[in-house]
Amino acid sequence: MKVIVLSSLDTSCRDAGLKHLLGHHPQAVVLSYDFVEGNRLVRTVSGNASAEYGEAVLEHPCIGCAVKYEIFPAIQRLAPRHADATMLLGLPATWHSGSVLETLAEKLELAGISVGSNVLSLDPVELEDQMWDRHTLWESGFSSMQQDQRTPGEYFFTELMQADTLIPVEGMQTQLLEAPDSPRRDGGKDFIAGLELAQHLAPHAALCRHGSELGSFSYEAVQWRTRAGHVPMARHLAPSGRAPLHLHAERPLHPQRFREALSELAASCTCLRGRLWVASALSERVAIGGAGPRIWMENTGSWSTEIAASELMLYDSEHEAGQIAKIFENCQVTEDELQDLLTTAPAPGNNPDLQGGE
Question: Which of 249, 219, 9, 184 is nearest to 101 (CA)?
Fold first, then answer.
C-alpha cells in the first residue's frame, strides 16, 4: 500500500486538495486530521472505508506524539490489505509534511507501506499576500496554537521545498463570493499569475491539475532541497520562464557592509535563500532564508567539503539585476582587507574549535 500525504495552510485548501486526489484514486481510503484547542486531534475517515469521526487528546501538542499515538495507529488499522491500495492522509492545517514524514518514515517502512507523493494544496491567488503577511499563523487564524510564531510565508518557505506535487485550488473566499468569470477563479488572470509564482518558488514540483499526474516522493531529494543554505541548481527554472536573481561572491562578505545592504537586497523580494561566507567568521557556513518581511540566518558549522563562497537566490524580485549585483559585489571585502584576514585568520574548515558566527 502507498500513502499520499497532503499539507495545506488552511482546512479549505486541504479538503479541496483531498477531493482532487480522490479523482485520481477513487478507491482510496481518506484519513484527515484537524488540530484544535485543548491539544485535541480530530480524525475524519471517509472514501473507501466506513465513515468515522473521533478525536484523541494529546498530552503534548507536538507532531511526534500525534504520529506515535494517533496517526500511525490509525493508518495501520485502516490500511487496505491489498498491495496496490492507496490511502490519502490530509494533515492538519499549517503542519509541515516533512516533520510528519520524518517521524512516520521508519514506522511505515516496517509496516510495508510506502509514500507515493508529498502534496501541497494551495490557493495561488492568495500566495503572494500570504508570503508577505506579517502576522503569525495564530494571529491570522490558521493555527489554533497561540505560541505558533511562524508567519504564513515561513510555512510556505519550507513546505514549497518539501512538496513534490502542487495542487492549485480555489480558496473559500473565491468559492463563496466570486462570480464564475472572476479573475480569481481557476483559469482566471489572478489565478494563473499566482500559479506562476508557486512554480517559480518550487520549480522541482509537479503541477497537478485537470488530470495531470502527481510527482513522486523521494526522501533523499527532500532532505537535499530543505537543507539549510541549499541553493537550487540554476537549470531548475519554473515553466513560466521566471528566473530568480542569482548572486555569487567568491570573497568573504564584510559583516557591516552586508548588514547595511541586506534590507535593500531583500526589499521587494518574495523569497530568498542561500549561504554566506562572512569575514568575521571565515570557517563558518551561514545559511540565510527569507519569506516576505522576515529574514533569518543560521550557523550550519564549518564549510566541510564545500568551497567557501556566498551565494544567494532572490525569488520574484522587482530589482534590476545589474543594480542588485553591484550592491552585493560591494559587500565583499577588498583585496587589502582580504589579505589582512588571510594573515590573521585560519582558512575555512581548518579550525574545528572556532564556534559561533556573525
Answer: 219
The H or E element spanning position 40 is strand 40-47
Name which of 241, 235, 246, 238 is nearest 274 in CA terms: 246
**pLDDT at 355 (0 to 100):** 35
For cell 516576505, name the residue: 292
Cα distances from 164 to residues 73, 116, 206, 293, in angstroms, run: 25, 10, 6, 26
| pLDDT tens digits, 269-302 | 999 999 999 998 999 999 999 999 999 999 999 9
Cβ density class 220-258: b for 16+ within 10 Å, e for less: eebeebbebbbbbeeeeebeeeeebbebebebbbbbeeb
What's the pTM value of the predicted model, to 2 decimals?
Answer: 0.90
The three cell numbers of residue 213 are 499526474
Residue 357: strand, helix, or coil: coil
- Which residues in the chain land under pLDDT 70? 234-241, 344-358
Quote the CA–CA distance of 103 and 96 in Å, as a whole number.
12
Q: What is the amino acid identity at position 312?
A: L
Q: How far apart are the first and last CA of the chain?
A: 48
Q: Which pLDDT score is estimated for 19? A: 96
| Best CA proximity match to 220, nearest among 64, 63, 111, 101 | 101
Tens digits of residue pLDDT in 75-86 = 999 998 888 899
